[in-house]
Amino acid sequence: MKRSWLEDRIVVLYAEQLRRKPDEVRSELMLRGPEWQCDSLTNLEVLLELEAEFGFEAPHDIVTATALRSVKGLARHVMDCLASKTKARGA
């Protein structure tokens, strides 16, 4: 999975939480800086959906909390969690 695809998926889920159109939300997020800063509580709901969709659990720690501050940060963190899950399965 490419990180850009995951970023798009996060924007769609984020927009669903806000009951808005993804294109509108993406435009607003892009104006908030290169990381696409967003509401961390809404992004927590997005993370829970991603966990269910991809079958992983993000650790309940400061790294995850920090990742919830932006779309791009969450995408990187989810990719790391998925990579760890794959590595653990192979061990």
How do you describe this structure in short?
The protein has a single domain (3-90), classed as ACP-like (Non-ribosomal Peptide Synthetase Peptidyl Carrier Protein, Chain A). Helix content is 73%, strand content 0%. The protein contains five helices and no strands.
Structural class: mainly alpha
Number of helices: 5
CATH architecture, by name, is Orthogonal Bundle
Largest sheet: none
Order of helices and strands: HHHHH
Structurally, how many domains make up the residues? 1
Assign the CATH topology.
Non-ribosomal Peptide Synthetase Peptidyl Carrier Protein, Chain A
Q: Over all CA atoms, what is the radius of gyration? A: 13 Å
Question: Could you tell me how far the N terminus lies from the C terminus, measured between alpha carbons in angstroms?
Answer: 21 Å
Q: Write down how many β-strands occur, each being a DSSP E stretch of 2 or more residues.
A: 0
Helical content (DSSP H or I, runs of 4+): over 70%
**Uncertain regions spanning at least 5 consecutive residues:** none
How large a portion of the residues is in β-strands, by DSSP E? under 5%
User: What sort of overall outline do the alpha carbons produce when their principal axes are compared?
Assistant: globular
Q: If you average the pLDDT, what whole number results? A: 94
CATH class: Mainly Alpha
